[in-house]
Design goal:
Number of strands: 0
Radius of gyration: 11 Å
Distance between the termini: 19 Å
Low-confidence stretches: none
Strand content: under 5%
Length: 68
């Protein structure tokens, strides 16, 4: 998985793997979200910001599901 994340442009894939998992981006239905994050100017920063927004929601899992 780390190699795939590096190919997508994540500069520190080990550091964001947990956040990607919490967002569901590593699941089968999270492929599009992972691609969109990888296409951003800074995938690591985009993932961290999105994970922080999700964590601040009353229903983080529901928010992550809506993203996917």
């Amino acid at each position: 998985m780390v190699t795939a994340l590096v190919r997508l442009g994540f500069d520190d894939p080990e550091a964001v793997e947990g956040e990607l998992a919490a967002l569901g981006a590593l699941r089968g239905d999270g492929g599009r979200l992972l691609e969109e994050l990888g296409a951003s100017a800074n995938p690591t920063l985009a993932t961290r910001a999105l994970a922080a927004i999700a964590a601040a929601q009353p229903d983080p899992a529901g928010f992550a599901g809506a993203l996917r």
